[in-house]
Amino acid sequence: MAAATKLHRFPAICQLFVVLRSCGHVRNTQPSKLNSVSNVQMRKMAGHSQWANRKHQKARIDGARSKLFQRRCADIVNAVKTGGADPESNPRLAAAITQAKKDNVPKARIEASQSQSSTQSDSFLSEAVFDGGIALVIETYGSSGQRGGESAIEARRIATKHGAVVKEQGSVSYLFERKFVVTLDSDDVDGVDDPEELAIDIGVEDLVTNVDGSVSFVCDEQEGETVVQQLMEYAFEPSDAGVRHVPNQWISMQADKHAQLRKLVSALEDYHGVKSVATNGKVNVGHD
Q1: Comparing 28 with 141, which gets the higher pLDDT?
Q2: Which residues touch 119 (CB under 8 Å, ≥6 apart)?
Q3: Which H or E run includes 252?
Q4: How far apart (Å, rounded) are the C-alpha atoms in residues 215 and 151?
Q5: Which of 219, 244, 246, 267 is nearest to 78 (CA)?
């Protein structure tokens, strides 16, 4: 009888449990399937977002490295074209190889660039004017034809995008002279007691201190290789050496306009098809 009474109680107890749970007095201790799935999905989405960010960041870094490598290799090719493939007899090539190694260009690419002989070494001059009177001479690798090939076309597009007005050849290049320019990085400059005294010792025409802290030694085209060799004898390794366009006269600019000019020049120099950029604009130190 007692056993039967217990059996009759179970349905009532179950009904009571259902009522209490519906009123919130009894919690469901089993995890919600919906919540569980939602949390997993959220974790997957968060992981995807982090991976996507890393992917885009890596792509930007790889793109910048690729452009830098292409530019260093182009410098080597051009140095070989003008002075031969032996670094011992071609200081310009030695400087280009040294800079490529500093920028971690793979050895195989450096060697391939030394042996390369192509039209990439040919160059073309594009000319432009910025802010109504600041002249720019843009030297690009590639065809020396009428339009200068793909590199020159892209360089002119970049210049236009950043506010410059492209001009016909001969419009502003007469404001510059072709000189041999040898540049030491700021790290090497720190080891020079007196850069001006060093400039006098090696017999250059001019010494230019650049915005990034590097210094450039300016000399005649015919004396360039000798200057590079002398600097290397002083245990300095030039980061750049070659014929460049140096302005006959500088034009002072307001600081904000000069900042825009620097942004334009940087954009051009970031393009691997550009060999060099010259401008006659400098910041007016008498103004903020």
Answers
A1: 141
A2: 142, 143
A3: strand 251-253
A4: 28
A5: 244
